[in-house]
Amino acid sequence: MKVIMSGMSSSNGVVDPRVTSVLAKWQNSHSLKVTLEELRRLMMSKENMTLTQPPEGQCYSN
């Protein structure tokens, strides 16, 4: 699924680790749940909520 948000590459979907505190200060004790909750928080930010999203079902090509 393709998502457009600040701190994410529009060409391949890679998240810039400097954008989130969880990724910027990564520790082995961080769980996938914590990481996904942080990404969800970013997606719900006012800045990202106003961005136009790609059509449903669009994916990044490898």
UniProtKB/TrEMBL annotation:
Q: Which InterPro entries match?
A: UBQ-conjugating_enzyme/RWD (IPR016135)
SUPFAM superfamilies, per database record: UBC-like
* Name of the protein described by the UniProt record: Uncharacterized protein
Q: Which organism is it from?
A: Myodes glareolus
